[in-house]
Design goal:
The complex is a heterodimer of chains A (402) and B (142). Chain A has 19 helices and no strands. With 402 residues, chain A is mainly alpha-helical. Chain A is globular. Chain B folds into two domains: 110 residues, Dimeric alpha+beta barrel (Alpha-Beta Plaits, 2-Layer Sandwich), CATH 3.30.70; 25 residues. Helices cover 32% and strands 25% of the residues of chain B. In chain B, strands 2-5-1-6 form a four-stranded antiparallel sheet, with helices on one face. The chains are: A mainly alpha (402), B alpha+beta (142).
Chain lengths: 402, 142
């Protein structure tokens, strides 16, 4: 929040980030001594703004920019305290959106957009981002530095685009929001299988965007997808912290409020008409699960249809892998395995733990336990999340000599 | 985290059946609801009919006993609620403060219990639902 509001003032996301961090450091030094101020948020903002002036002087930025900032701060400082009490209002949403649209600006590469949004909006470390995208940490760090420099050099306005530009830039924003959601939904690293706060951040961004771009079906499609997936949060972790797979989940724990919201958002997307986009299709798939009271009641044939549509719209080996799972459920494990076997030579799936995991599952269903065990072992070796690794090792063990 | 904002209007405990808020108050409240929605924090909201249209079910000695409204002993009753998702209790309080409430209205803010907060044994107890559900599924299937 602090970064978003500061960036609006200094018009430089990199600088805003540093200022926010500085302010936090000052707070950590002072608060234990002076006590926590009545309004910590406002205190941080005022401190950061003062630092902004210092930083600009120190860096000898252009006089023009200096004056511009000085004016803005002078005029704002008086009412800052009053205003900041209301920081929670629409401004926050707008600031966040400005930040998202700036971070997702087409002047940046897709990789840079994702990295920057995760860093600035999602608050992930460069290491976490690096793991999410299977590249070295140094690459991500460099990507972020370059992205910030590009935004400054090209004088990218810190704003939410309007009209035709909004539609064009939306898909990039949707992709980034969904990536943030996914990082929270299945953490790529660490001991926690999920990071619910990240899911909530992504959902909130999605919900804000759904009001701002209410006529865009895909925004509602994305919100629907995230709401329905988030509805399973409680059920997909066991009391001991282990992941629970979709079909093993206790459906009584699914959050009916979020399912209801998800189905309503999907309905909204469908009512807007047009060919369904990738998020609406994925939301429709999620909705098939949400509507099934028991795993047996799942409409797998419909899910296969939806995955086939999705594969045509956005061909990818990951979609193919999911389609194979659906085919196995609808038409038996042998049919699914045939498709999965065809994917084993796929370059893009090299190192992707879900490929051997799915293959192991289908093999074990066909009674080929020895091969299944090897596949689960391979999947466990590739999994980066320790909870997920445990689950895969358990499955490997359960395929052992019987 | 989720919070329930419970709206408690004074006198609502004795309101006539079918009592509705006036148009002006609704208009102001709609603006507020819109702000909640635009900020992406609103999950659900509803207004409730007065107790005179409801009933209370109590369990003296473990046996359900139904009393039709209004309820003579009730001092304050809920008139409606918002369910919001926010970052902190402070943020929830900020939102509640911005509600265009009138002199005779109070908002009670209550955090929704998170499943993850439950101790392991309570979470275990909750998984008892699963068997119930499976049995229900088998019944349907047969």
């Amino acid at each position: 929040m602090l970064i978003a509001a500061l960036a609006r003032i200094v018009r430089d996301v990199g600088l805003a980030e540093e200022l926010a961090q500085d302010a936090l450091v000052v707070a950590l030094e002072q608060w234990p001594v002076s006590g926590v101020p009545n309004n910590p948020g406002a205190w941080l903002m005022t401190t950061a703004k003062n630092r902004a002036i210092d930083a600009l002087r120190r860096n000898k930025l252009t006089e023009r920019k200096h004056q511009e900032l000085g004016r803005e701060i002078d005029s704002q400082q008086g009412k800052a305290m009053a205003d900041l009490d209301a920081q929670i209002d629409d401004d926050i949403g707008d600031d966040l959106l400005r930040l998202v649209f700036t971070a997702c600006h087409p002047v940046l590469s897709t990789e840079a957009r994702i990295a920057l949004t995760l860093r600035l909006v999602g608050g992930l470390t460069t290491e976490e981002i690096a793991r999410a995208f299977l590249v070295p940490e140094a690459t991500i760090a460099q990507r972020i530095v370059r992205a910030k420099r590009t935004l400054t050099e090209k004088r990218i306005p810190y704003e939410v685009p309007r009209g035709a530009e909004l539609a064009a830039r939306l898909s990039s924003v949707l992709d980034v929001i969904y990536l943030i959601f996914n990082e929270g939904y299945t953490a790529t690293s660490g001991d926690d299988w999920m990071r619910p706060a990240l899911c909530e951040d992504a959902l909130r961004l999605g919900r804000i965007l759904a009001e701002l771009a209410a006529r865009e079906p895909e925004v509602h499609g994305l919100v629907a997808l995230m709401e329905i997936q988030a509805s399973r949060s409680r059920a997909r972790v066991s009391a001991s912290g282990h992941p629970v797979l979709l079909l093993d989940q206790n459906r009584a724990l699914w959050d009916q409020l979020l399912i209801h919201r998800g189905l309503a958002a999907l309905d909204r997307a469908e009512k807007l008409g047009g060919e369904p986009g990738q998020y609406s299709l994925q939301a429709s798939i999620a909705a098939c699960h949400a509507r099934a009271l028991t795993p047996d009641a799942t409409d797998w044939a419909r899910i296969v249809e939806l995955y086939t549509e999705l594969a045509q719209l956005t061909p990818s080996p990951v979609v193919e892998l999911n389609r194979a799972v659906a085919i196995a459920m609808a038409f038996g494990p042998a049919a699914g395995l045939e498709l999965v076997d065809a994917l084993t030579s796929e370059k893009l799936l090299e190192g992707y733990h879900l490929l051997p995991s799915v293959r192991g599952d289908l093999l074990s269903k066909l009674g080929r336990f020895e091969e299944a065990q090897a596949e689960f072992g391979r999947a466990a070796a590739l999994a980066r999340n320790s909870r997920e690794r445990d689950l895969l090792l358990d499955r490997a063990a359960s395929c052992g000599p019987r | 985290m989720r919070f329930m904002m419970l709206m408690i209007p004074k006198g609502y405990e004795n309101a006539e059946p079918g009592k509705m808020p006036d148009a002006q108050a609704v208009a102001a409240m709609m603006k507020y609801n819109e702000a909640l929605q635009k900020a992406g924090v609103l999950l659900a909201l509803d207004g409730l009919h007065p107790p005179s249209m409801g009933a209370r079910i109590s369990f003296p000695g473990g046996k359900p006993t139904v009393t039709d409204g209004p309820f003579a002993e009730a001092k304050e009753v809920v008139g409606g609620y918002w369910m919001i998702q926010v970052k902190s209790k402070e943020e929830a309080i900020e939102w509640a403060k911005r509600c265009p409430g009138s002199e005779n209205e109070t908002i009670e803010l209550r955090q929704v219990q998170d499943f993850a907060e439950f101790p392991a044994d309570v979470q275990q107890a909750a998984s008892g639902f699963k068997e119930m559900q499976e049995q229900a599924g088998q019944r349907r299937g047969s």
